[in-house]
Amino acid sequence: MEEEIWGKIEKSNPSLQSLASIRALIINPSTSKHIISAVFQTLTQYLHQEQETQNLENQIQNQNQNQNQLHHYLKLLCDIATHHHEFTHTVFNTVRSFAFSSVNSQFKIKCLSVLLTIAEHDVNLVSAITEIDENVIIKLCFDSSVSVRSWILRNVFRFGIGDEILVQVLLGFVNDAYPYVRVIALDGLVKLSKSVVEIKNGGLIREGYDRAVDLFVDSNACVRAAAIRVVCEWGQMLPESGVEVEEQDWFNSVFVQLCSMVRDMSMEVRNEAFVSLGKIKMVSEDILLQTLSKKVLGNLKERKFPGKISKKFLDLPASNAAGAFVHGLEDEFYEVRRSACSSLGMLMAFSVRFANDALNLLMDMLNDHSMVVRLQTLETMYQMVTCDRLKVQEAHMHMFLGTLVDASTLIRCAARKVLRLLKLPFMKIFKSSINGLLTNLETYPEDEADIFSVLFYMGRNHGSFAVSFVTEVSQEIEPSFEGELKFDNPRVAAILVLAISAPLTHERLACSIPTKVFSYAIPFVGRIAFSLRDSVTQDTLLAYLYKFSRITHIPGTESSIEDDPSPVAGGKLPLHNIDEIFNRVLPLQQISNEASEDQFQKDLRDIRQTTFPPTHQRKVIFTDEEAEKSITLILKMVAATWQLIKSGLIDEVQKTLRSCREELATVVVNSNRLNGFLAFASQYIQVVQHLAEIWIHFLPLRKFQYIKTGMLDHLLEKLDDNLRKLRYEFSGLNKEEELHILELVLLACVLRLSRMEICCNVNTMKRVRSTISHIQLLCDDLQIEISEFAGELAKSLNESGYRDDDALSPQLSFKRLLDLFSLKDMVFNGILKHIHAELDVPGNDSENPFPFVSGLPAGVTFQLTLFNITENDRLWLKMSVQEGDLCQYLFLDLNHIKGYDEINKVTLSVPFYNTPKAASFVLRALVVKECSSEDVGQMARGFGGPKGELIVISNITKIYMVAAKTTT
Length: 968
Description:
The protein is α+β, with helices and mostly antiparallel strands. The protein contains 41 helices and 14 strands.
């Protein structure tokens, strides 16, 4: 097929259609190397011919057409280099020779562009880029063509040219006749700012600064905006470069220089001026205060600053800063107002007085008609509160609290973010803030979780205020006449959150709150704990509530819960699984940073002594080490269920395994090793759950004899799939752990073979043989005896197990083999890493489908994140229209996606070839890993795809496609 297509292309004259066909061959992963080599030779020949034609004087009128052809040929060569790595260096050297031999500067930069693209895909070629003669590059900088100069100046940093030469070249082009060349040169100077400091050449910095100041009056707005960026960066470098200037005065001079541009006629320039103002590292308080007042302050009326370094007589009046931020916050364009708000926040740290005066302006911005500006204003206020510059007054609160009922979710969330950290000076302000949050809760119930969290922090930060407020509204949280709490009232829950947070600042405040309030909060514990999940677990919160509600009676120790008429408010509460509570409880320092470790241990002992019987006093887990022990204990419990499985107590087993999985879900770790351990443990529990479900079918005289064999087959397939994941989805398994998994694989094979309906499964027999061989090798390496189960199976097969048709002999006793198997404890000694991936297609959903043309390839751009991938892993991207259809596979070359880090992100553009004849379809994509096992399994269906068994290591992503409308 490929030979036929290429034959037709060779016979035809080069055209856009033939070039498109050539590209289809190049990007098709199944195209042979022979065809790619022929394509390469043909394209090289085309380039030679076109280049020779271009050099003929009588063909000058066709130069534009030739340039277009040359561009297409170079692009195809680039595709060969990036899609076929064995040709990368050959293509690179060929294109480089074209670049050096050509006399046409346009063609040269196209060649250089291809070389840079190839080097991005092969890091080994980066050094070859830097070795290109710098004289060739600098000569192109002075080319008569504007497009050539622009491209070279934009990419000049990627070639091996010294920083000092680069600075001089760029300075030479800041006065170029074309504005966009001037902009590129100025932006290049900003990019080189750090290198310039290292050069320590004060003369260059002085020259660059002065030239940028001159461009403040350029006729093009884009040039003036770029000049502002240079003045901001290079102006602040002058004190570090050895130039004799007074540091404080010079920073003020740069600041005032930038203020002179905030009234420019161009929105772009004004916006850039305010962005740059926020980057200044040092400003005097009097200059900052001047920016908030349009009236020139008395001490600045006669003050002057140097406008340039080389011309100190050019004085810059300090009055240029007058009302700069007032103008910015009143600007007609929201972009300028947003930048002005942002810069205000960055400058607040320099002066408390400036922050206080600026707050009056910011409060007015909370009424801005643009949501973007209001959001930036709240972000600025958050910056102020984090550096202790936000001193709110009673007059401010009405406007600020109005944002809590804003129609925008983002605005409400940003306002609560500020309120969470705000220190309120008076009870009246605190009360209005709490009422504002409660109004927010009533208006937007969906904000409940975040509101509870804010109330919790406010109660901690204002303990005495919180107690006073709760006391005033205590009647609202009292049970009804029938003794029932208002469980459906969010306001009641919110007040309880505030009440229970107060004692965390000072424990003495707990005496001011009735103990029954803490017991009222217990029925809400799940709801409250969800809101405080970033600070405290549900079990910690429950233990805390028990302590302050003074609950001293545990049902089952002296009397039962039924004996107490008021189990919620009276002091008795049914507790379930108390061991679980104290095994997962976190330090109370997570709730209150002021509490010490000793105090925490004392509080914990008090809780245990007054609340729980001595038999439930067990150690609390704090570290990753303890977390690892907890996971190990869970796995021991899983292994202990085997005897229950063999006894037929499947319901009890399932309950135990579910509890183990829930317990496992509560373990939170940070290390990559323990994350892999957690994932493996969860997968291992699933395997044991499947074994329990399968074992039902092998128990005598059960009620489940009516279950069809098809269901058993389905369970066995699930078991095989999970075992495959255990073997190949984790790296770092040592020999003992691998041996444990292989015995489970052998057990799965025996279970499959022991059913009469499937006893002739040839693939299963081959798997049994290879697994036993592997087990024997591992046992020899570990110098241990093979298990009785595996040894008996190997012995039985050797004596009477095999027949000519690869089926098992009927004499083999499966019942004896199953009785011999015993599930051992899973013990880990190595470092496990979980191999998985995340797949996403941005910008696509059912409402925003991608267009396609039936029968033609459809391009899809995937964002792929790979975790813990090694150089030995073979990964494929699998795509299909419907499950069971012929699949298209793309091999993910790990060398191509650069590296084997713990987290690796890559963007892939992939053509899907099998587009159906339909108005629309849904493409399903996922990442699979090819197993490197010698076992024979079901082959993957698809052309050019994997040959062995696969495991899915990513989410299934749906790509919605719709037929493109065609015009006739």
